[in-house]
Amino acid sequence: MPVRSPFSEGQILLPWLLPAGFLLAWLFISFIGVIPAYLLPSPGEVLKAATSYIFGEPGSAPYAGRFYADFCASGLRVLSGFSLAVLIGLPLGMLSGRVPFLQRMLGTSINGLRAVPGICWLPLALVWFGIGLKTTVFLVALAAFFPIYLNTEAGARQVSPLLLQAGAMMGVRRLRGTFAVLLPAAMPHIMTGLRLGLGISWAYLVLGELTGVPNGLGAVIMDARMLGRIDIIVVGIILIALIGRLSDTGLHWLLRTCFRSARRSA
Amino acid sequence: MSRYLQVVQKNPSTVEQPYILDVEHVQKKFGNGDIGEKLVLADIGFSARRGELICILGRSGCGKTTLLNLLAGFIAPDQGTIRLHDQPVSKPGPDRCVVFQDDALFPWLTVRENIAFGLKGQRISSAQKEEEIDRFLKLVGLSEFAAYLPSEISGGMKQRVALARVLILKPQVLLMDEPFAALDAQTREEMQNLVLELWQQLAHTILFVTHDVTEAVLLADRILLFDKDPGRIKEDIRLELSRPREKEDQNFLSLCRVIRAQI
Ligand SMILES: Nc1ncnc2c1ncn2[C@@H]1O[C@H](COP(=O)(O)OP(=O)(O)OP(=O)(O)O)[C@@H](O)[C@H]1O
Ligand SMILES: [Mg+2]
Fold first, then answer.
1. Beta carbons within 8 Å of B182's beta carbon, 6+ residues apart
2. Which of A9, A27, A262, B252 pairs with B47 at a CA distance of 20 to 30 A?
């Protein structure tokens, strides 16, 4: 008899256990009223604010119906920044994983830059790019670059020489070898890097939007703070968490659809 | 030492064939940092006839894999020349294919896709490719497992795939590096029979590295006995034992004994 985990029936439910518990605690706290509502609104209020924010008639109330425009603005920023990071980080990572000279040249600098907290770039980015799309895209691209580059580099470096020899003996040359052997062999690492990069993109999106841009999910949070609308702040946080999670699932799905090496690695 | 070898039957198929692979005065050193240089192969020279099955027999660390890497073109010799059909070997290519000591299948490709890998660049119609793939799947007995991933099949099956994916390229020389060392005795025997079967059907020139005397005597037309430190050919033994060979046969056993004493 195989030993069964008591949770094995509820494998699908398991990830929701913690959020559900959290929600219950939140309900309980707002019910007994130990924390005043202006610090932590009740779930009901937040739900109402969320409904209005997402589905409300624009103009009928502050924040009503703004979600779609904010989501598009933020989505565009994340997508542009993340794409830029992939475009630079992926080829650079592949190259320095395979060319020791490049690795030695770039490794120290990139690790040094990585140690600088992202927020330190904010003033510089503001001076360079002003407030808005460009600054946010810059910050997102910068933040997403490091996990993408570092994981791709590690993946490319760790590809078994045996696989490369096998490819070479079966007649694949440089360019085709890169796509037929190197890329798929490094795919598990690349996938990790891309997913980490996309995750951190959302964090830096908010940082970029805190600086006073008129729209976007981060801008809404900042705006709501000034107007004392804590329910909207909570709505913004939950939405970013949800969208971040969904975008990760989407990216994973996309990679698995496009690359069999992604599909067939655990 | 030939007086120990019972001549039961000449194997006329290979003796008359022309030489296709020539190795002359090949030397290879490895510089390993503080210890300085180590001479791994010293003055290796031999020629292989077309269709010949040569076993390279020697103790661990005597440079067998290094020699195969040189022949495959993965590394270059410090001195000496390697020529295939009078063309110097300079880089890896599908005319000299390797079945590696360790599993070197592409883990993201199915059995079928692994076998198809080398055909990609070739200019033959896709219908013809599919036909070839089917044929070689069948030859190594893996038709049923075409859709499996390498992680889902056994070690013996993996080496069958490794064999099929290179045989399909019709290599001039097949280089096999202790391909069955990691298999259990029964599977190894199956694989040895498979190699002999395929060799008789397809008539490849095979260089088969092993440290197992019985395996060498079972398979080889010729055994190159390697010495260690530095690696060099100590003895070039022609086996004239009739095929199929029986491991319990008196001649077979005495031959094994003689060779074992030499190592
Ligand atoms: N790339 C390398 N750099 C330095 N030394 C090496 C390298 N490759 C092999 N050697 C050395 O060369 C010697 C022979 O190695 P090789 O792998 O050819 O032996 P082998 O006969 O195949 O052994 P085994 O039966 O264990 O596979 C060893 O002493 C090894 O340390
Ligand atoms: Mg070896």
1. B102, B155
2. B252
Domain end call among B118, B150, B169 = B169
Query: Would you give the distance in Å from CA B35 to the centre of its chain?
Result: 32
Query: Of B98, B102, B149, which is closest to A169 when you measure between CB atoms?
Result: B98
Domain borders along chain A are 67-265
**Residue B26, in any domain of the structure:** no
Is A185 near chain B, with CB under 8 Å?
yes
Q: From the alpha carbon of B75, which atom of ligand 1 is closest?
A: 1
DSSP A181: I
Residue among A165, A204, A201, A205 at smallest CA distance from A185: A165
Here the CATH number for the domain that contains residue B90 is 3.40.50.300
**A264 → closest Cβ in B74, B96, B108:** B108
> B34 CA to chain A: closest CA distance, Å?
21
Mutate to test the pocket of ligand 1, among B30, B71, B209 (most ligand atoms within 8 A of CB): B30
Q: Please say if the pLDDT value at position B6 is more than 70.
A: no
Same domain, B90 and B189: yes
Residue type, B166: V
**What residue's CA is closest to ligand 1, atom 28?**
B61
Residue A247's identity, in one-letter code, is S
pLDDT tens for each residue of A2-44: 455 555 556 778 888 898 999 899 889 888 888 887 888 888 8
- Which atom of ligand 1 approaches the CA of B69 most closely? 18
CATH 1.10.3720.10 fits A67-265, yes or no: yes
Question: Residue B228 belongs to what domain range?
Answer: 2-15+49-76+86-95+171-262
pTM: 0.85
Whole-angstrom distance, CA of residue A198 vs CA of residue B10: 69
A187 touches chain B (CB under 8 A): yes
Ligand 1 contacts CB of residue B63 (under 6 A)? yes
- One domain, residues B55 and B10: yes
State the burial class of residue B146 (Cβ atoms within 10 Å of its Cβ: 0-12, 13-18, 19+): middle
Length of chain A: 266
pLDDT digits (tens, 9 = 90+) for A91-102: 999 999 999 898
Per the omega criterion (within 30 degrees of 0), is the bond before A147 cis? no
